[in-house]
Structure formats: structure tokens, C-alpha cells
Write a structure and sequence with these properties.
Shape: globular
Radius of gyration: 22 Å
Helix content: 25-40%
Distance between the termini: 43 Å
Keywords: Cytoplasm
Number of strands: 10
Subcellular location: Cytoplasm
Organism: Cariama cristata (Red-legged seriema)
Order of helices and strands: HHEHEHEHHHEHEEHEEEEHHHH
Protein name: Protein misato 1
Pfam family, one: Tubulin_3
Strand order of the largest sheet: 5-4-10-6-7
CATH superfamily of the largest domain: Tubulin/FtsZ, GTPase domain
CATH architecture of the largest domain: 3-Layer(aba) Sandwich
Strand content: 5-15%
Number of helices: 13
Largest sheet: 5 strands, mixed
CATH class of the largest domain: Alpha Beta
Length: about 425
């Protein structure tokens, strides 16, 4: 069985990695006794070592020279620890060396325990804030990605999904959900059939200084077995059945500035109405699933710039993907009216709906981080600053975070402040 004895992602890895694709930081081994990479400054200083930079550039050039069409780079980086500083320096290197190429950065955070000590909590907050500022400034687009309910000081319950029973304390479970979302979100520029590039996706979302985007996903997309796509979408006319994966409570007002939406695992013929019959809704009158999804998005998000993609290929959930699904799901991930009377087989694939949004919800996230940082007495945590971050650099980053936050203001912020006061 998989789960309990497995500690890290590479324990599940069936792919043989090329030696040039791995660079081991020996100062901070995963299971060593030489301490943890716990502060942003430690991560930054690692990549200021000329030997480290040379090794990294050598590995990059090896792969870049093999490319016949280099769109850009995806950077997956922990936000909560010293790898936040490593990621900041890596994106800066990519930005300087490969100007004009796309850099999409994903800031990952595990679900946090309520029992964290104050130092660990403070380090996490500082690493996260500095990471968001530095990663977004050198990326085409930056997305915080997590099942944790909050990136701030106050812990919040993790994200829940109606048809998944996962253990939030197991990285094996949470990373599987995020991987399904990430695989879906990045499809528009990864497929051979795609019209747009990584940079094109970034440019549709990052205008007006909005370099940070939020991720949403429906894992699985709740489609009844045998039910058409317009029937499914009509059941969710007011609220899209997805969850926010960017560590922030959802706003009462559902809106966004721009979005890229991907629906996968839905048969493209499932929308066809019977000839000669009156369409049950405008969605039923659409000629294709792409047109249907686009019309649905315009109805739910009027005024937003929306791009949409529909893929027939579902998300594969065969072993070693965890079997944490509801018994209401078929082997293809579609919903049943009631649980089967027999023991159901493993879920082999699921339909997924996912989106990247430039959204006012990011004002809530960034504003909350600014408020938490203002409350902190940084003099108490000299150890964090001794790792390489100067107090002046921190104040400058805090100002940049405020500026970034202002890019997402819409006029609903007064209501938001009242909500925060109520929750306190």
C-alpha cells in the first residue's frame, strides 16, 4: 500500500531523471543533520555562490540547446521556507538570461498545522511575503498554489472537495490534488494543438501590473453520468462548482478581471440536442462545447475577459494516484445518483475544471499579508535577518506588496474590512 511509509514526492517517481536535471544542495540535505533551509536569506545566499550559479547555468544551457522552440520556464517553488529565496534568485537568473521568454512561477505551500511554534510561524510569514514580492517581480505570472486555508498568521481550515475524502496532513494526498489542477491549468500552452504560448497566456492575465493570479479547480468536475454538459452547467448558473486553491477565503462578490479556463474529460458530442426540438436553454443551443463553456463564463462573469479550452482527455488517476474518491464516482469519474450496492472499482480518470484568474480575491490575500506583517515586531526575530535579509530590504518589500495589493482594488474593500472585523 502507498501512503503511511512514504515521506517525499520522489518515493513515487517512476521516471528516470537525467543527471543534468538534478542539482543537490548539499548544505541542506532532506534527512541530514546539517539544519533546515528555513529562511529566505539562506536560500538567496545559496544562489549567490559563483560555483552554484555556474552549475545551474550549465544545466540550463544543456536543455535550452536541445529546444527547437523555447516558450519559457515553469518554476515550482516552496513559499513557506528558504526555497522561497532560492526561487527568487532562480527567476531573477531566468529573467536576466532569457529576456522575452515566459516565466510562470507557482508558489507552493503545504497545509499548516495549528500547533506551529511562533518562530516557525513568523519565518513562514516572512518567507511567503518576500517570496511573493520577488517571484512576481521577475516572473511573467505568479500563482500561489495550496490547499491551506490561509497564508497569514491565523491558521484556517484546509480546502474541502465534495467528492474527495483526503487527509490534509498527508503531502501525498494534497500534492495529488494540486498536480491534477496544475496539469489542467497549464494545458493551453503545453499541447501541440494549442494556438497560444506561455507568454500569450501571461499577457492575457497580467495587465495593469497584476502579476499575481489565483487558481481555482473542480476536482472532479461534478458531471452526472449520462448527463449533457449544458445540463450540468445549467445546474450551476450562479456559482461555478470550483474551489479556490490560492489560500484565501472566497469573497461574497464573484467577479474577475480576466481568466483562462480549462475543462477536460468531457466528451465533445455530449452537448448535441435532438433535431427539431426547442433548446432547453441558450447553452443547449450552442454548436460546440468550446462555445458552450465560453457562453457560460460570460454569463457568470459578465465583463471579464475569458479564454476557454475544452479537452476530451481526462485527468489520469491510476496508481500511484491516491484512491480518496467518493463511492458516488464511476471509474471514469462521473457522478452516480446513489452509491452502488457493490464495492466499486478504482477511479481511473476524472473530469477537471480549472482556472487561472486575475481577481479581486487577490486583494484579500495580499492585504491580509500586509496587515499581518505590520503587526509583527521584527526586532524579536533578529535570527531571520541575520540569515541575509536586511531590515531596509524587508521594508522595501512590504511597500512593494502594498503596491501589488492596490492593483486588485475594486471598491468592495469597505465590505471586505467589515467582514474581517466580524471574523475577528
Amino acid at each position: 500500500s502507498v501512503g503511511g511509509s512514504v515521506q517525499v514526492w520522489s518515493d513515487y517517481l517512476n521516471v528516470h531523471l537525467h543527471p543534468k536535471s538534478i542539482y543537490v544542495i548539499r548544505q541542506y540535505m532532506h534527512d541530514g543533520e546539517c539544519g533546515c533551509l528555513e529562511a529566505f536569506g539562506q536560500g538567496e545566499s545559496l544562489l549567490q555562490d559563483p560555483g552554484c550559479i555556474e552549475e545551474l547555468e550549465d544545466r540550463l544551457h544543456f536543455y535550452v540547446e536541445e529546444c527547437d522552440y523555447l516558450q519559457g520556464f515553469q518554476v515550482l517553488c516552496d513559499l513557506h521556507n528558504g526555497f522561497s529565496g532560492v526561487g527568487a534568485k532562480v527567476t531573477e537568473l531566468l529573467y536576466d538570461e532569457y529576456s522575452g521568454k515566459g516565466i510562470l512561477t507557482w508558489g507552493l505551500t503545504p497545509v499548516m498545522s495549528c500547533l506551529e511554534d511562533s518562530q516557525k510561524n513568523f519565518y513562514r510569514l516572512m518567507n511567503t511575503a518576500l517570496g511573493i514580492v520577488h517571484l512576481s517581480s521577475h516572473s511573467s505570472l505568479f500563482c500561489p498554489l495550496s490547499l491551506s486555508g490561509s497564508l497569514g498568521i491565523k491558521p484556517q481550515p484546509p480546502v474541502t472537495f465534495p467528492y474527495i475524502n483526503y487527509d490534509a496532513s498527508l503531502n501525498y494526498h494534497s500534492s495529488a490534488i494540486l498536480a491534477a489542477a496544475l496539469d489542467t491549468l497549464t494545458a493551453p500552452y503545453r499541447l501541440r494543438s494549442s494556438q497560444g504560448s506561455m507568454m500569450h497566456l501571461a499577457e492575457t492575465l497580467n495587465f495593469s501590473g497584476r502579476k499575481v493570479v489565483a487558481a481555482w479547480a473542480s476536482v472532479p468536475f461534478p458531471a452526472l453520468r449520462g448527463c449533457s454538459l449544458p445540463d450540468t452547467l445549467c445546474a450551476y448558473q450562479q456559482d461555478v462548482p470550483w474551489k479556490l486553491l490560492s489560500s484565501c477565503r472566497e469573497r461574497k462578490v464573484s467577479c474577475c478581471f480576466a481568466q483562462s479556463v480549462v475543462l477536460r474529460g468531457i466528451c465533445k458530442e455530449s452537448h448535441i440536442s435532438c433535431p427539431g426540438t426547442q433548446p432547453a436553454s441558450p447553452l443547449h443551443a450552442c454548436e460546440s462545447t468550446e462555445q458552450m463553456l465560453q457562453r457560460y463564463l460570460h454569463t457568470v462573469f459578465p465583463g471579464a475577459f475569458s479564454t476557454s479550452h475544452v479537452l476530451e482527455q481526462p485527468c489520469n488517476t491510476l496508481h500511484p494516484y491516491p484512491q480518496f474518491f467518493s463511492p458516488l464516482l464511476t471509474r471514469q469519474g462521473f457522478l452516480l445518483d446513489k452509491p452502488p450496492s457493490y464495492s466499486s472499482a478504482a477511479v481511473e480518470s476524472i473530469p477537471v475544471l480549472a482556472a487561472l484568474q486575475s481577481s479581486p480575491v487577490l486583494h484579500t490575500l495580499l492585504h491580509g499579508l500586509c496587515k499581518d506583517l505590520q503587526k509583527v515586531n521584527v526586532r524579536r526575530w533578529a535570527s531571520f535577518f541575520s540569515a541575509g535579509v536586511e531590515q531596509d530590504d524587508f521594508q522595501e518589500a512590504l511597500q512593494e506588496l502594498r503596491t501589488l495589493c492596490q492593483c486588485y482594488e475594486t471598491g468592495f474593500e469597505a465590505d471586505e474590512s467589515e467582514d474581517e472585523a466580524d471574523s475577528d
